[in-house]
What does this fold into?
Amino acid sequence: MKLETIIYEKEAYIAIITLNRPQRLNAIGETMSGELEQALEEANSDDEVRVLIITGAGKGFCSGADVSVLGTLADRTDAPWLLSAKSPSAGGIHSFVVPFYNFEKPTIAAVNGVAAGGGFSIALACDIRIASERARFSQIFIRRGLVPDTGSTYFLPRVAGMSRACEMVFTGDVLDAEKAKECGIVSRVVPHDELIPAVKEVAAKIAAGPPITMKLAKRALYKGASTDFMSALEFEGYLQGICFGTKDFREGVAAFNEKREPKFTGK
It folds into this structure.
């Protein structure tokens, strides 16, 4: 996979995507959008990947859409198509959002600096967000005369609540890392130099778990957040029946009985 604007690495069941335009605070252009979509699809289909980390090179996580690209849209009749989640990688700069939403495995955003606009959306699209003390979060869209996109209107109210989402969107104000933690946007804040080690530690713990069960648990959590209680119970029962048929379930029980750590294989 030849890439220009991101770095894709794998180590011990963990895939790491690094947005790599540090001179532009990792702003998203059409090339990055397409490459990010490609990397997500590859990681999702790779059985050797059990968890995904995404972070940014340099001082920023991601500053959102490249303003130099946005500036060309005002005079283009195909601008709505360019921004469509259904548009192909070659055209739609937001086409990476759907693969993020459909990603079956646990995802962690290691937010090392500014996460604004679409960059904030990338973090919101992840299951877990861990922030450096230098992280900053903003729904910058309103300051550009735009409504939130890249899934922000879907993710942010679910993560932070409607009142906080409205305040962030309507004002465009910047939240520091500690305030983001207070709002539930990130689960923890760590010293900047400890961010990647801390995220890798969490990722390794997740990667050591049963891969099939992990995917099903993720599916259950998100379905449970958008359905009624009895439907959630029924879905849990259905998924539990799948788990009972796995070798990993038998390994988990055997490890408990033998007083040892389980060794899950994803079968």
Notes: The two ends are 28 Å apart (CA to CA). The chain is about 45% helix and 15% strand. The chain has two domains: 6-207, 211-257. The CA atoms of residues 15 and 46 lie 10 Å apart.
